[in-house]
Predict the 3D structure of the following.
Amino acid sequence: MDGSELSGVSRTTLWTLHNRATEAARPRPLLEDPQAVRLLREIDYPYEETFGKPSQSHALRALCFDRVVRRFRREWPQGTVVALGEGLQTGYWRLGDRRAPWVTVDLPEVVALRRRLLPEEGNLRQLALSALDRSWQDEVEPGQGVLLSAEGLLMYFEPEQVYALLRDCARRFPGGWMIFDSIPHWFSRRTLRGLRLTPGYTAPPMPFALSVPEAARLPERVPGLASATDLPLPPGRGPWRYAATLGGLPLLRGVRPSITLVRFAHRS
């Protein structure tokens, strides 16, 4: 298995796997993720040559998302988690709660790879669809609570696509939650000019950007959003230990990456 069937945005799942699994393979990891470590070893791919040296960033992001899923499960024990653009993320196994439904939504080539490499599970469904294809919403039962997760996804969409997706999800899943991460505008501009991670790899364009202040104003911009909360990264090692503290400084709130939890309004 060499990952050659993935290209464009789909290939970025190998980038995040590289960072997450390399961290999980450390003697004292920030993130326990044995499935990711296994995938990294089974997919014969030139990770470091393509994406550069591994970073803690994606492991810390995964930890933040995991915390929200656990909070959601406490409030909605039978609620459905819908992982949009899940790629080779392995949160379903990492969290260890396999009693409640989990739905993966991703492009056909990614879902095909997941089916070949990851275990079949009774409460895990995998839909070979773009997150922009709203037909996935028909496969989700909203009655027991819904958490939508878009980890490393929305930045690859056009801004109008993102705002329309948020609006449609709020309409379809009143009272639900959605967590997503965003890049700042300066980083988006770099990708649009061509961001070379290594001499052999240029990251795909990321046209959607959202600052922390802009995220806070989402309920004013998108109908059906009740609240939007900025979530800090957990502390990492070395300089990453201070990511949450530094990220809270007013000077940096407009220029740093962010993770946002939105809650959809209940129907009146």
The mean pLDDT is 95. The radius of gyration is 18 Å.
